Amino acid sequence: MQENTGFSLDLSGIEELDPSLTEGHKVVYEREVPFELRINSGGRNPEEVGSLESVKAKILVLGEENSPENIRLELSSENDLFFYYTHDVNEMTFKEIQNEQRIVVDFEEYLGVLVRMLNSCIKEPNSYLAVLIMNKEGSAKLEFIQNIQYKFVELLSLDFVAISEENVREQITYRYNAAKSKLAAVESRVKDIYSLVKVKNPSLLLQLQKNLSKK
Which of 73, 115, 167, 190 has its Cα between 20 and 30 A from that of 158? Predict the structure, then answer.
């Protein structure tokens, strides 16, 4: 019987404490996406060129994915723990977006649209842009733009709001505890690997220790 030497990190316990899940939502998408961040300082037009940063885009759904009651897109950043914006949509508010922007899909297909837009920005950053324009009062607008060589075409525009200070504190506490749990899990995994190598191949362990001492 072959011994199982595989290791896995079970972080489901800490992930269940995510404040984003308190209303019954579930995470269906979570990826780092390149965003251009611009600041609207109160003038007529925002900055023409912003900073390019990696933003974590997390999509949560209340209900079934093919028949959602609510869809929420959350934007956060590891570079700024106080950066946190949300876009909340239900079937009624989606109709306003649908009418204003002449969107031809129904609410049930909106999740798929968001996923495709975000993935396009990851896979084809030269052709698809995600531009977040932030206002001083806490609102923001996300514009998905396509570069079709001779001009830029706006595909979708979404309104966001910054979460409250209390919710920011909850998110920071959660992210700190999650990072702490991941570190403890990794340290435990390293200890298990060390013990296994020590028994199975002591010479390899000596070589690993020698390599580490050189660094």
Answer: 167
